[in-house]
Amino acid sequence: MADDPIIDRQHEREREQERRRLQEEESKDLEVEAQRGPRPLEGYAGGHTTWASAQDDAVAAVEHAHDAQASWEASQRQARLEPEPEASTERD
Q: What is the pTM of this model?
């Protein structure tokens, strides 16, 4: 079946289509790189929108409200060489 000329032609056609697609993408990339100046999203990589930031902060405040206390308690247990408490696995 590996010597099937129909399948070979189909695969060759698919490879040629992929080569053309990659060449088109490369052409677009080269065209963009040839233009000097600021990029549309340059400088925004780590930025937050006001909406998302406020929403994230509110959720984080609730989610992590007791992290400092839990961390302190875990540190104290470790300092006293106590085992970590078992997580409850009770099921209703």
A: 0.37
Phi and psi, residue 80, nearest 5°: -90, 5
b/e per residue 64-80 (b: at least 16 CB within 10 A)? eeeeeeeeeeeeeeeee
CA distances from 87 to 14, 17, 33, 73, 91 (A): 54, 55, 54, 15, 12
Please say whether the beta carbons of 48 and 56 come within 8 A: yes
**What pLDDT does 68 receive?**
86
- The 8-class DSSP code of residue 37 comes to S
Give residue for tokens 């990029």: 39
22 vs 28: CA distance, rounded Å: 10
Note the Cα 14 to chain centre separation in Å: 30
